[in-house]
Amino acid sequence: MATIYKTRINILQHKLKERNIDYFIISDADSHHSEYVCDYYKIRSAFCGFTGSNGTLLVGREDAYLWTDGRYFIQAEKELKGSDIILMRMGEKSVPTIREFLAKRYETESEKMSVTIGCDGSCMMKGAMDEIRDAFAKVGKNVQFYYDSNLARDILKETGAQEKYFQFKSSKIRVLPEPLQGKCIDNNIQSIRDALIKVRADVFLSAKLDTNMYLLNIRGEDITYNPVAFSYVLVSDKNVVLFVKEEAMTDELKAYAKQHNIRLENYNCFEKKLTFYTTGKTVVTEFQSLSAKAHEVLTVNNAEVVEGDCGVALLQAIKSKKEIELIKNIYIKDSAAVCKFFYWLSRQTPGTITEYAAACKMDALRKEIPENRGLSFNTISAYGANAAMMHYETKENDCATLENGNVFLLDSGGQYDGGTTDVTRTVVIGEPTEEMKQNFTRVVRGMLALQNAVFMKGCIGMNLDILAREPMWEVYMDYKCGTGHGIGYMLNVHEGPQAIRMRGSGIAGQTEIAPGMIVSDEPGIYLEGKYGIRMENILLCEEACENHDGIFLKFVPLTYVPVDMRLINKEEMEPKEWIRLVCYQQSVYEKVSPLLSDEERRWLKKETDCQ
Amino acid sequence: MATIYKTRINILQHKLKERNIDYFIISDADSHHSEYVCDYYKIRSAFCGFTGSNGTLLVGREDAYLWTDGRYFIQAEKELKGSDIILMRMGEKSVPTIREFLAKRYETESEKMSVTIGCDGSCMMKGAMDEIRDAFAKVGKNVQFYYDSNLARDILKETGAQEKYFQFKSSKIRVLPEPLQGKCIDNNIQSIRDALIKVRADVFLSAKLDTNMYLLNIRGEDITYNPVAFSYVLVSDKNVVLFVKEEAMTDELKAYAKQHNIRLENYNCFEKKLTFYTTGKTVVTEFQSLSAKAHEVLTVNNAEVVEGDCGVALLQAIKSKKEIELIKNIYIKDSAAVCKFFYWLSRQTPGTITEYAAACKMDALRKEIPENRGLSFNTISAYGANAAMMHYETKENDCATLENGNVFLLDSGGQYDGGTTDVTRTVVIGEPTEEMKQNFTRVVRGMLALQNAVFMKGCIGMNLDILAREPMWEVYMDYKCGTGHGIGYMLNVHEGPQAIRMRGSGIAGQTEIAPGMIVSDEPGIYLEGKYGIRMENILLCEEACENHDGIFLKFVPLTYVPVDMRLINKEEMEPKEWIRLVCYQQSVYEKVSPLLSDEERRWLKKETDCQ
């Protein structure tokens, strides 16, 4: 670990003592609860060196901790090596959440009745703050929050951190052309207004960037991989207000806004204008994505704040017929690009291609598709032991070469005019071991079990998760992440509210899987230090049948990329499972072969031929 | 429908008008939220004729409704025929709950701001009342409750109803002898006291009859099939108080109480004494099983009432090693009795045995077991179409005969010194149709899939339910009930908090399946008017393995009764499923054959031989 991180933490700890703050939270969060954030907000890694996409640093006057999830345990260990920061492995037994940790820390300190937690209040969400408050209340303690948006960033300035932490700009916003507008803006607004009437409220406020884009049929470029612009949307019975940065307002946007009666306001004046639009009103908003500071602005101005989303999460998650048609089409093109990649890979000599070169090839193949607008996330190109790190980041100058005798995992996706894709395949380079085949076969059995599920309307992800996980559980293995996530339409590659998980709290845990929803199906086996296997198809939920027992739903795959048959152990599959695999391989050939060259097509025929 | 029911509802409606009550709830509930209640409380059927075990009657000034669940739809339709009572099929789409119905009913009546709901406050639980209040609050209405414990019963008196509705007596309580005491009373009390310290409360109050028996190692006979006595238990740092009826206090109980420092108080003075023990105290109690009236007594006397159970539900659900040993032993004896029954049935000429005679034979075989103390529920003995009614009640003078060509379903269980049992088998009389075989095979596949599940610690019933249900869902069929329930130790055949269900709210939906828990595994296919198939094994959860991925759990069956192979279609099973069946049949022979006669043993050998 570089000494600069230690220096920064030392300065921070000094400031905590000066200001009588007990713990300070640095969380890489932006003001919109975005999953991916732009560089400006990624200050956590500048304090501890951990570069994973999910991590929260908690700095006390004498101690420091980093929370991250199972995807990053191996990476975090590596990157924190040599520091005094204690790694908190989320989800492992006996590992508390941050709020549990904090509350427990002071539970028995009878002389200390009030604890002060510092954070950037414009990046700490109201919901998260409430949870901390509740945790302290349970142990009979008060908690005070010390909001300071500059404390941490000023330390970076003092210690000469990179320019990116101090620049916060928007790109120009584009308006989706009519053929790509998945839903009608006027209908979107009307459905929010209907919801407002139902809950007897005046104003709906959305801080979620992807939701803001989706509702108004606009897109931005402010966060890498996520076509969103920094924004807020406010809907009342009379007004639709869009807050965006000045530099994002194009003439096209202005004309479009005028046409649809959208008021454009300056993002930098959000708090002041929020007061103007909400004083004395009843405001519906999601506490999970509203900053504590914005919430304070509302309450100070006598707005009554009600938690809710006016149905926008489901509006966004349930794709329209038009969207589904566009998405299906794009997924076949995207699948063809991935097929082309694996054809190319099959022609390379083992030992000659690096993970980075492979990723570049994949990215280049996507770029050749006319509708492509870049990637939906940083391509994960991982060989052997690197593939055991669920969200391994391939670095040009420090990456493995694809040698004989281990597996290669490629998890990638694109942004397109017409959809957002995500797909993972694991293949063997050279000859697999028997153990690799056994494990790969289990992962494929799990993926196909979920893909072929028939289930009743009313099921949530928790009901279905075991289908994908069971082949691993049978042999006492588990993957430490969810099985599936929702995916946006020309938007974020991770989108709620539905999810396929073993456990889930709040809306994510309770959302029914409904026709029109898209979920990923990505079981895996990760053997630290050896190799990792993940297979990921994207599934569309459709109605299968309605009868006197109710409505039955099913999935259809959107992804058509072959399964590497060299890694399949047919003897370990039930006949039903084998048939599922054969049918899937056949459908891959049928869907994708028309988009391939003769050579590629011959290769695909062989790959998908199960005899 | 008999006219007496119409008369009673008319009188009630008249009284509602007199008293300005909008709706009156008659729910067959006792003061302890018992699932089964004694005759004294079963007044609902005297108002509407519906005799199922779950049903709530809602009577308005001009209208009346009956809510019941999927087990009773067919029966309720029959029994309500000719009345104006509208059947509300719980769980079906667009059918509201009672509180939703009531709130919706008044949502748009702008001139009516307050609604008055009448009920017996000592039988309406605090939790249920809160839910009604919340539902009204959501539509901006007030609700007032009119408690009257006599209103409905007085109508029965006026109209000459049976004596049973006016007699409320307890039987004598017995103390479990040491060899049958599953857990140590002192440890039970201590664990409650530890929990009280943890939540900073003074008193734990339990109204749940089975919990009261379990905590103190006593049993009663006040409710048919349930070895419980009407009681309350109150635990504070100094006191353990048991409220029971005077006639229940034997000398044995008094001596036992003295020995363990338990204060005995008169059940009839509960409310008065409750004031004495709780005034100004913080009281932990479950709102689901505490009557609204008892809650009122607490709050009127300045007790602070906190919802909670001090861990007693889990204490009860997770069986001790001693209990498990006793239970395993009893289940084999009980399984042997069921095997003897099916041997006997196999020797009877089709067309000669009625459902009732079959039930009597089964009950008699259980009685022959020395440890037997009666049944754990009324034996369901159902032939053909009757078996499609999930909780069909066999009546001596109105029941079917077991003819050739359809299935016979037997769902039965016993109370024993050493455990409580529950088992269901469906067999064919004569030759089955192909459809019967297909359906039966699906049900068996589902039962064995759950029985053979391996799953991670942390799973709840919702995660596992699909394993049993999937073979039905595959062909767009569903059973309209949960897959599994917990079972008491020498107590109620249905016991929480765990359950295997598709959906679940509150504690039942959130309880992890843990080692030491017992659950039923009872998928089914019910074809109205044709036949019903249900298979039910009872499963014990055990730890399977602990490794770096976590703790893995599995089930072992407690039930060993053969599956009717004449109804199995081997071609419809995957090899893995077939092996599960063969292994189970073999284990049945191994476990049960030593308890059978030579003739029975030869029969069992043939039944369990899968070649």
Describe this structure in words.
The structure is a homodimer of 611-residue chains. Chain A contains 19 helices and 28 strands. By secondary structure, chain A is an alpha+beta fold. In chain A, the strands form eight sheets. In chain A, strands 4-3-2-1-5-6 form a six-stranded mixed β-sheet, with helices on both faces. In chain A, strands 12-11-10-8-13-14 form a six-stranded mixed β-sheet, with helices on both faces. Chain A has a four-stranded antiparallel β-sheet with strand order 21-28-27-24. In chain A, a hairpin with a 3-residue loop joins β10 and β11 (240-244). In chain A, α1 packs across α6, α13 (321-346) crosses α14 (355-367) and α18 (575-592) runs antiparallel to α19 (598-608). The longest helix of chain A has 26 residues, at 321-346. Chain A is globular and about 70 Å long. The model of chain A has no long low-confidence stretch (mean pLDDT 95). The A-B interface holds A 93, 140, 200, 453-456, 458-460, 462-467, 470, 473-474, 476-478, 480, 502-503, 544-545, 547, 549-550, 552, 574-576 and B 93, 140, 200, 453-456, 458-460, 462-467, 470, 473-474, 476-478, 480, 502-503, 544-545, 547, 549-550, 552, 574-576.
